[in-house]
Amino acid sequence: MKAAVLYEPNTPLRVEELDLAPPQRGEVLVKIAAAGVCHSDYHIMVGDLAAPLPSVLGHEGAGVVEAIGEGVTVVQPGDHVILLFRANCGRCAFCSKGRPALCGTTRALRASGTMLDGTSRLSRNGEPIKHFTGVSCFAEKAVLLETSLVPIRKDVPLDIAALVGCSVMTGVGAAVNTAGVEPGSSVLVIGAGGVGLNVVMGAHLAGASPIVVADLNAAKLEMAHAFGATDVIDAGERDVVQATREICGGEGADYAFEAIGLGKTALQAFNAVRRGGTAVMVGVARPDDTINVSAFDLLFQEKTLKGSFYGSTRPYHDMPRLLDLYKAGRLPLDKLLSRRYALDDINEAYRALIAGEVARSVVVPNG
Ligand SMILES: [Zn+2]
Ligand SMILES: [Zn+2]
Q1: Cα 241 to chain centroid, rounded
Q2: Which candidate, 239, 25, 254, 260, places its Cα nearest to that of 119?
Q3: Which of 94, 118, 167, 329 is 20 to 30 A distant from 197 in Cα terms?
Q4: Please, are residues 133 and 55 in contact by the beta-carbon 8 Å criterion?
Q5: Is the model's pLDDT at 338 over the cut of 90?
């Protein structure tokens, strides 16, 4: 089968023929319908984050189950599935207390680049190729753990479902799950990329008002209105904290979300929330980046600074519900999906993402 392989950071992905071994016990073979072009893979491609290489990247996807290994009970061939880049083992302390985004199972997969038995199903000319976070969906097919799959309704386009597997869950979940935005609360979102626009959608869904969006890119700010933004701040022209205070009436927003992945914009988020407010880090920062918040304000203003990983997802609960909301017209995910690319054009898809030309695009490996 054809897949996109990263051999070294700062080199193009190479689309080539690989061998894919059949699913072993507890594993599932999925034909990939769509794979999201997400910034997180880019962090690996440019070496900001490390991963075992060579590897088939891609962690945001959806497809159709083709075959199941021994003992699999979650899905059957023919099922439509969303792929999870954090598996849901169901047994560890984090899964048990409803926080499967922190599950240890795929933390181990992410570090090893293998399946649970320490081996890879991917190879080229007999040489093993690594998996990426148990997904590796920049490929025609993938073998995943059954606990990395969420079966879904079949009347949702699979390219829309793919986005729910990362950016939608991450953004909407940050607003609805992690922060618990209430109706009428004021929200600031810093960064109007794929994840930021999903935070906007989540805040809109939760009934927030105003919903303020800050970015340096005027085209992205224009786009934010279509997802529920009531006010925008051109961060190149206005001070984000000051402008937020003006729009939200004095002290700032009840909630602020950092959706870029920088300590300095996370500090803006913290400074832009009012007394008792909550700032949420959603963007993926470099491991050595830091946030230098005022310890004084943290105490005397009872501010909260928290992280949101994978939208604090409870995937079997959240993802089918997000698709139901999409079908009900409450989540405008069609507006989010700007372009579809063939797998051969994946490097062009990343160029367009980094140039800020698209809200979200997908690769269609079997298209
Ligand atoms: Zn992603
Ligand atoms: Zn677990």
Answers
A1: 26
A2: 25
A3: 94
A4: no
A5: no
The tokens for 116 are 């649970």
pLDDT surpasses 90 at 128: yes
pLDDT in tens, 263-291: 999 999 999 999 999 999 999 999 999 99
Tokens describing residue 88: 């849901």
Distance from Cα 170 to the centre of ligand 2, integer Å: 18
Q: Which residues fall within 8 angstroms of residue 8, CB to CB, at 6 or more apart?
A: 53
Span from the CA of 300 to the centroid of ligand 1 (angstroms): 36
Torsion angle defined by CA atoms of residues 64, 66, 69 and 70, in that order, rounded to the nearest 10 degrees: 100
Q: Which two tokens stand for residue 95?
A: 């899964």
Smallest-distance ligand from the CA of 137 = 1
Active-site residue set: 38, 40, 43, 59, 166
Sole residue written with tokens 């909407």: 172
What separation in Å is there between the alpha carbon of 87 and the centre of ligand 2?
A: 7
Contact 273, 252 (CB under 8 A): yes
pLDDT band at 343 (very low <50, low <70, confident <90, very high): very high
Q: Considering the entire predicted model, what is its pTM? A: 0.95
Query: Is residue 301 a contact partner of residue 227, using CB atoms and an 8 Å limit?
Result: no
Cα 358 to Cα 163: distance, rounded to the nearest angstrom: 14
Span 249-268, pLDDT tens digits: 889 999 999 999 999 999 99
Do the beta carbons of residue 166 and residue 40 sit within 8 Å? yes
Q: 246 C-alpha to center of ligand 1: Å?
A: 33
Q: How confident is the model at residue 107 (pLDDT cuts 50, 70, 90)?
A: confident
Q: How far apart are CA 201 and CA 330, in angstroms?
A: 9
- What are the residues whose beta carbons fall under 8 Å from the beta carbon of 239, sequence distance 6 or more? none
